[in-house]
Amino acid sequence: MRIAECVVGDETGTIIFTARNDQVDIMKPGVTVILRNAKIDMFKGCMRLAVDKWGRVEVTDSADFVVKEDNNLSTVEYELVSVAEE
Known about the structure:
The chain is mostly beta strands. The chain has 1 helix and 6 strands. Strand 1 (3-10) and strand 2 (13-20) form a beta hairpin. This is Single-stranded DNA binding protein Ssb-like OB fold domain-containing protein.
């Protein structure tokens, strides 16, 4: 199994994408991709984007938007809080 972490983004922000196996070969700097049926995994309290066997990573034509690099959702740390019922 091969795993690589890549920063992906759109006009709303960025997030770390965990590429696995054949996805690693697709993810290159400057390449525009479409991630279909992507999901969020939590890793050490932070979000990571992933595409499992039910999704697809597709190379596409260049997008015509500017990536908002100052909003990286993977840098936000979340904590699971249990709420007691009264």
